[in-house]
């Protein structure tokens, strides 16, 4: 069985690494900071509505510390703004033909990777992961930890997808190998346009007409660009079977991945690759995107002011929207 190298052991990478490791896969993690230290000291605790387990797997601080094998499967699990740096480190460490899977939101990571490596796969991540405390990750999903659509980039699928799917299935993560994984990832992108508004306003706070405005711009640019997308949202029947959101004792869901970045005081947000993708496509195809452009400015401000979720009001967000995009 191929080794799985999880690059970026945060919410998603952490749940995946711990689940794979406890189900018997050979796993190596690449982490940094307090998370690396905590995993080395005591393993990684994985909590879910149904489980509480601690996984012990090899974890290093950089790709150069790994003795690479030809059949390693590499999972990119960092935020999109960290992908380029990570790819450079992989290249410097001698990675060449290994299969690289982008378990990331947004649609840019695959292109970044394919510029440098020949075997790239997309993965749509439907997994409510939380990472707020070094040494501990949480999935609020039951009965599976989450679901993935995977496939080769730009399309098709091959034996590497099947190998990863088998390992993930054994690790209680549902996997669907797709012919056109990017259609699923564009559908997920439309959902992620609300990451920044939730991060600003706080989880569970009313967002008025903002979600509909953001999504309408998103759908309009995808339409103008001729990009196909499939709906992986709340009505996706797979969610009911595999991914019901439930409570985890003592760990409230802290909001989505962008909100968690703010809570952890991160120096950057992924917004440029989410709402920013829509703004870019709008500019390329002549579709105004003033609402998504406004949320990009909001993201910059939240980082500059080290704001926490809930410190911004809906009126603040609406005031940011100007007719020009
Ligand atoms: N969390 C969720 O529920 C979901 C997230 N996603 C997507 O999954 C992807 C990962 O998100 P998420 O897991 O939340 O992100 P996190 O920020 O929780 O985890 C990413 C981890 O990667 C680390 N990292 C980044 N660059 C490097 C590097 N060069 N070397 C070592 N470690 C590195 C980060 O360290 P540091 O903290 O120091 O930056 C962090 O620990 C994103 O694209 C996100 O949008 C998709 C669906 C749901
Ligand atoms: C859809 C959502 C918000 C689910 O967690 C997500 O993809 C994220 O957190 O980035």
Automatic annotation (TrEMBL):
Transmembrane segments: none
Annotated GO MF terms: 2-dehydropantoate 2-reductase activity
EC code: 1.1.1.169
InterPro entries listed in its UniProt record: 6-PGluconate_DH-like_C_sf, 6PGD_dom2, KPA_reductase, KPR-Related, KPR_N, NAD(P)-bd_dom_sf
Keywords: Pantothenate biosynthesis
A Pfam family the protein falls into: ApbA_C
Pathway: Cofactor biosynthesis; (R)-pantothenate biosynthesis; (R)-pantoate from 3-methyl-2-oxobutanoate: step 2/2
The Ketopantoate reductase N-terminal domain, residue ranges: 4-153
Name of the protein: 2-dehydropantoate 2-reductase
